[in-house]
């Protein structure tokens, strides 16, 4: 992507139909991408949601990715596509400036003689590739990363600096792992014995399929017995905790600070929002959605959206309500008693009425 | 700060009025600082809160930072200041033993020929300074840190070991970033397409103003389009997650494990307590306070304190009440119906009473 | 553990009574450990919980760790022990393949001349041992780790790669610290002054007793004045935040993503479940248990289990109930009023009844 494309080339790459505005030229070379509101005259934008439609009329962008439906209302050159958000995502790859590295092993890296590093791979400064580890073609191992004994990094996968992969972990092709993430540290397993904890050494590993992206400062623990398994195309954000023997189904996405306890099995195509938690040994159905900060304490058998927590408010109101939370069971019982007593009183009235009638 | 000050010098440095106790000498050299309860005879203490006033009479400290108001009750030498807590904070700088490093580039560091490292800066062992990066005067780049392509570290700023700064990130002057924090990793952006996720490459960067302190294992993601922005004098604790395109206003403080989702705008002088969360695309008014572990799900328009969550209790009571939470809407409806029914029954009674009267 | 034991040797090592199944041989060499369901013919399994008893009859394991009580129902060779889970934990040590390192200092490590590294210790590639630091016998300092000025690592303790120990921190013997954990970073202390924050330099350190295990990406901050203290045999999982001056009692376990705010004192033998939080300056009694994601906002004086939060449900139901949470105080007042009004109405009825009687 050294040379940036013209509008016409961009349209071709994105499979977009180019509808030049009067006076516009297909050989214009846009400088990059931006939102409808912030785009300069030489930037391309996109209209992916009805919420942003109001910004279309005034955009200064030189071209906009739009649907056929909205193309007519586009005041500038339109790049007509079926799915503008997806086309925008594809376009970001063109303008991405994440540094690339030429093949080779930095002189300050430590590569064990028994490790297999493909000649097209890059091993950065102070990185360590331990015994019997394998780094496949075009893989990039950033500065300060460690690839543990016997672990494997698939083709075109990239570890950003200071990632640690323990021994016996398998990372597929086309994966990204961001900085300071740790894969394959010991799961948290201890047997209580006479008031102390005896360590359960974690004998399993971690298996990560192809096309997985993992954010920064995330932990994926190795299995106790058998592996922790991350499915194909899974996307994991920053500071996510995946405990030992968790399984995450293909194409599931987990936002930042979410956490999954040991041996939980999460289905395919799930979306776990930021800060959500899933306790151990539960099963989550495919296509489940868990909302931000919710704690899932039981298995989810049906696709759907799941939540827990309380709404926020000013602290004074909150405190008044929160105190009542501690009285809820008592309130519920009082309500039931009152219902019964009232019903009984109506019964009395009913009883009384005849009696009254008898008078 | 090689030579420690005498009491008199300390008073001068802190702008304190020295009121020597009988027999005390201004040329005494205190060994350090401590609390009123724990101070030894050669330590200086402080009285910053009425809660600790009861410890003043029995303190063994050689001197105490106090207000004029309380100076008379101080049994030892008083260092009279307007704000003892602030004076204590200033004093901690005098006794701090955090190691300092002489200017120079460690032989094991990797500095790209195109990088600009000021001659007064320090680059630690195995640190990496990538192409076109700049490290300003008296900056300290700890062991194993990476400063990515074109990124800049301002004057006197310090990265503790193993911090990773991605490409295109700007850190101001007089900042501290603690170990294993990651700045500029990709924001979490993917466009769904046919059950898969297409990556939205994150084209923006991170801008951090002067006098910002950032704790350990914290993540500040780069912007998707445009930058993530951290204002002047912001203080961020450990394991804080700042998503792409977040803006944090000047002098806001965020405690450990708090998290802010994408494009949220947090005002100035806010205090976000530990574990609090703020969802994406909201705006938080200046001087807002969010209490520990609260989740802010909407914009906050007015300064104030905001909370969510439930009080804790013994698990048995909690379970009884928590079950009722799942019945709350039903309870509310039953309460309303009961109110209506009761009012109606009173109406009957009222109707009856006259009838009774008529009898 | 280079050579794996025979069944007879395994029994001896674990203090188990070997009851060979018909045709089984004590000189069989099992390949490893597995669950009852997943074990192959050459793996040893264990029955530690009644929940798994149903898997015993069909297991393919060559031997099973069982209690005397259940040994008779074991279809294969029984290894009879008093506590099968504990025996399993001991057995994991035998089959653990975590790489070990021979004594020596890697050529790419930086060891300050004033540091004391025992001749039996291992210092990995690009690791840094600063001035006056001490690394005791058989300690293992992984690649990219930093041991700060004057800090000490006890005998047989192991830092996995990229751990950072700041200056003035003391780690006991037989400890493990997993990758990218940070010990001794500054506690979060700032004094407000005229709308800005003045740093309170953190003058204390961190003291970690023997036999402590700490997970990956965890932070244990140094004390402000005096040390943060972690007791003997404490087990801490990944991404746990321990703030300045916290004290954690012996043999307490803290699961992933739990957090403790400044100066909290946690007792001995406590279990803090995943994601639980404990606010600052509270005291938690020995043997307390805090359930997952609960927030402890006050001291706990008695051993027991403690919780907060709400149950999860489908988002639609949850939303209906959560809205009512914001009306709880009002509901409680309405309930009380209704109770009073109803009682009063009954009073009227009671009053009326005699009157009725009088009629």
Index terms:
homotrimer, alpha/beta, Udp-n-acetylmuramoylalanyl-d-glutamate--2,6- Diaminopimelate Ligase, Chain: A, domain 1, UDP N-Acetylglucosamine Acyltransferase, domain 1, eleven-stranded parallel β-sheet, ten-stranded parallel β-sheet, 18% helix
Task: Describe the model.
Chains A, B, C: Residues 109-186 form the Mannose-1-phosphate guanyltransferase C-terminal domain. Chains A, B, C: It catalyses: a UDP-3-O-[(3R)-3-hydroxyacyl]-alpha-D-glucosamine + a (3R)-hydroxyacyl-[ACP] = a UDP-2-N,3-O-bis[(3R)-3-hydroxyacyl]-alpha-D-glucosamine + holo-[ACP] + H(+). Chains A, B, C: Its EC number is 2.3.1.191. Chains A, B, C: Keywords: Acyltransferase, Lipid A biosynthesis, Lipid biosynthesis, Lipid metabolism, Repeat, Transferase. Chains A, B, C: One of its GO terms (molecular function) is UDP-3-O-[(3R)-3-hydroxyacyl]-glucosamine N-acyltransferase activity. Three copies of one chain form a homotrimer. With 359 residues, chain A is an alpha/beta fold. Chain A folds into three domains: 7-95, MurE/MurF, N-terminal domain (Udp-n-acetylmuramoylalanyl-d-glutamate--2,6- Diaminopimelate Ligase, Chain: A, domain 1, 3-Layer(aba) Sandwich); 104-306, Hexapeptide repeat proteins (UDP N-Acetylglucosamine Acyltransferase, domain 1, 3 Solenoid), CATH 2.160.10; 319-358. Chain A has five helices and 38 strands. The first copy, chain A, has an eleven-stranded parallel beta sheet, with no helix packed on it. In chain A, strand 20 and strand 21 (196-199) form a beta hairpin. Chain A is flat. Mean pLDDT of chain A is 94; it is low at 349-359. Chains in contact: A-B, A-C, B-C. Chains B and C meet through strand 2, helix 3, strand 38, helix 4 and helix 5 of B and strand 20, strand 21, strand 36, strand 37 and helix 4 of C. Strand 37 (304-307) of chain A pairs antiparallel with strand 38 (313-314) of chain C, so a sheet runs across the interface.
């Amino acid at each position: 992507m050294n040379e940036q494309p013209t509008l016409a080339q961009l349209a071709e790459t994105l499979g977009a139909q180019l509808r030049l505005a009067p006076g516009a030229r297909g050989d214009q070379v846009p400088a990059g991408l931006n939102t409808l509101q912030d785009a300069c005259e030489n930037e391309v934008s996109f209209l992916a949601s009805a919420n942003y439609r109001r910004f279309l009329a005034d955009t200064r962008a030189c071209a906009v990715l739009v649907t056929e439906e909205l193309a007519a209302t586009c005041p500038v050159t339109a790049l007509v596509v079926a799915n503008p958000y997806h086309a925008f995502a594809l376009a970001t790859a063109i303008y991405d400036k994440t540094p690339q590295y030429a093949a080779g092993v930095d002189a300050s890296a430590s590569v064990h003689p028994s490790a297999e590093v493909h000649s097209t791979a890059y091993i950065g400064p102070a990185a360590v590739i331990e015994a019997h580890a394998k780094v496949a073609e075009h893989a990039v191992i950033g500065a300060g990363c460690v690839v543990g004994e016997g672990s494997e990094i698939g083709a075109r996968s990239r570890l950003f600096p200071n990632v640690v992969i323990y021994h016996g972990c398998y990372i597929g092709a086309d994966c990204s792992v961001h900085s300071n993430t740790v894969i394959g540290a010991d799961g948290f397993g201890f047997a209580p014995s006479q008031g102390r904890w005896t360590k359960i050494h974690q004998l399993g590993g971690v298996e990560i399929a192809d096309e997985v992206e993992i954010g920064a400062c995330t932990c994926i623990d190795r299995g106790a017995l058998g592996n922790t398994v991350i499915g194909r195309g899974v996307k994991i954000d920053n500071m996510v905790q995946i405990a030992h023997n968790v399984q995450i189904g293909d194409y599931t996405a987990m936002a930042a600070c979410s956490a999954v306890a040991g041996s939980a099995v999460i289905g395919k195509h799930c979306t776990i929002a930021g800060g959500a938690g899933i306790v151990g040994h539960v099963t989550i159905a495919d296509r489940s959605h868990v909302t931000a900060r919710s704690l899932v304490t039981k298995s989810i058998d049906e696709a759907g959206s799941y939540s827990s927590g309380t709404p926020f408010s000013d602290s004074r109101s909150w405190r008044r309500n929160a105190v009542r939370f501690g009285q809820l069971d008592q309130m519920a019982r009082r309500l039931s008693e009152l219902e019964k007593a009232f019903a009984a009183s109506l019964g009395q009235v009913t009883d009384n009425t005849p009696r009254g009638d008898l008078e």
